[in-house]
Write a structure and sequence with these properties.
By secondary structure, this protein is an alpha+beta fold. 64% of the residues lie in helices and 10% in strands. The strands form 2 sheets. Strands 2-3-1-6-7 form a 5-stranded mixed β-sheet, with helices on both faces. It has a two-stranded antiparallel sheet with strand order 4-5. A hairpin with a 2-residue loop joins strand 4 and strand 5. Helix 3 runs antiparallel to helix 4. The radius of gyration is 30 Å and the shape is elongated. The termini are far apart.
């Protein structure tokens, strides 16, 4: 029993239309920084219209059922590539996809006058569409976070790669003498090879769309976790998350009899800045010092906003000498920084208390010791580094 191409296209178009609704709904409900879902929905819309036009071949003019339909097919695939680029905040390669669409439209239009025109048309489409599909799969797999397994990116990238491989197999079959295409009537041809290609393409579009939805939800969950663990203003860990992470580091150090250091960094006279310059000025200072801390400390160091004026920095496997050295470096960098608000340039300083923890020293003890050193630094003039015991 042969697969009826028109029936299959109509069925999958119905599923694709429902996915279009899902993508446009996601684009409205997801945060603005989640890009690409409107583009993917528009791609599915073009692919659905293209499928309907192809299925109506013979009932509507050639210009619509072949030329325009093939152009929209390539355009839809190009938009899938652009959606992936937008999702990963990469520049959209619009010039090459546009050239692909223009080439397919002109080639399809002028190929009608050649011998075995359907085969030529199919070969050209297979090359162009297969290239775009392969590029999309590569963009997904290349931009994945290799340190964290995310099902959506792997699944969608692999599905695109399989679609590109199948498209390549179709191209090989088109180039053989006995291709099995009979009258070479493009997508509407009936035969085992064509049935396999048609089914794999339509099912592939549905699968990669589902995969893209999964990517969106994975990123939404990750975004929620980031919001729960980070201070909104500074981007550093909030107090709860900092405490949890530091306690884990202390347990790890205790197992290996290592030592740690902890810094409490307080912005000098932040309340005065808020009262004289305004809350926005104080917020700008907090953002600025947070940016400096992220640039200065190691990736393994933990940075948290401990309260409104203080940042806590936990330094794993760091001895007192190293802690003092990095603290003085940070203090010196802060002295040279300023933030601009309107016509005002706001300079600020910071006082730092340092505590060193041997194996068995708890986080509470480290914080208390660093706090005592910080109070001494403030009492002796501010813009100083002090280490416990003072």
């Amino acid at each position: 029993m042969e697969l009826d191409p028109r029936t299959f296209i109509a069925t999958t178009s119905l599923v694709t239309f429902m996915l279009i609704i899902v993508f446009f709904a996601q684009a409205r409900s997801f945060p603005a920084r989640f890009k690409g879902f409107n583009t993917w929905g528009l791609a599915l819309l073009l692919l659905t219209i293209s499928g309907a036009a192809i299925a109506a071949r013979g009932a509507i003019p050639y210009l619509l059922s072949v030329v325009l339909a093939n152009g929209m097919l390539t355009g839809g695939i190009a938009l899938l590539l652009m959606a992936v680029c937008r999702l990963n905040n990469r520049p959209m390669p619009w010039i090459f996809p546009l050239l692909c669409v223009v080439f397919v439209v002109f080639e399809t239009y002028f190929a009608e006058g050649f011998v075995r025109t359907h085969q030529i048309r199919s070969i050209s489409s297979a090359v162009v569409n297969g290239t775009l599909i392969g590029m999309t799969g590569w963009a997904l797999l290349k931009d994945r976070n290799i340190s964290v397994f995310k099902f959506g990116a792997y699944f969608t990238g692999i599905c695109f790669s399989i679609m590109a491989l199948i498209n390549f197999v179709r191209l090989i079959s088109l180039l053989t003498v006995d291709s099995g295409y009979g009258n070479f009537d493009g997508l509407m041809s009936e035969g085992t090879i064509q049935a396999f290609y048609l089914a794999s393409y339509n099912i592939g579009i549905i699968l990669v769309s589902i995969g893209f939805i999964v990517i969106g939800h994975e990123r939404l969950v990750e975004s929620g976790r980031e919001i729960a663990n980070h201070d909104e203003l500074s981007g550093a860990y909030n107090r709860k998350r900092f405490t949890e992470a530091a306690e884990q580091e202390i347990k790890r150090a205790d197992r290996y009899e290592g030592d740690n250091s902890l810094l409490l960094i307080e912005i000098d006279n932040l309340k005065t800045i808020n009262e004289t310059q305004g809350q926005q000025a104080g917020d700008s200072v907090i953002k600025d010092i947070a940016s400096l801390l992220k640039q200065t400390f190691r990736e393994t160091d933990l940075i948290g906003r401990y309260n409104s004026e203080e940042f806590a920095v936990f330094l794993p496997a760091t001895e007192p000498g190293g802690a003092i050295s990095i603290s003085e470096r940070v203090r010196g960098k802060i002295m040279l920084r300023s933030v601009t608000l309107g016509n005002d340039e706001i300079k600020y300083t910071a006082s730092i208390g340092v505590a060193h923890g041997m194996p068995g020293c708890s986080l509470e003890e480290l914080i208390a010791q660093a706090g005592e050193a910080l109070q001494h630094a403030k009492a002796t003039g501010r813009n100083r580094v002090e280490i416990f015991p003072v």
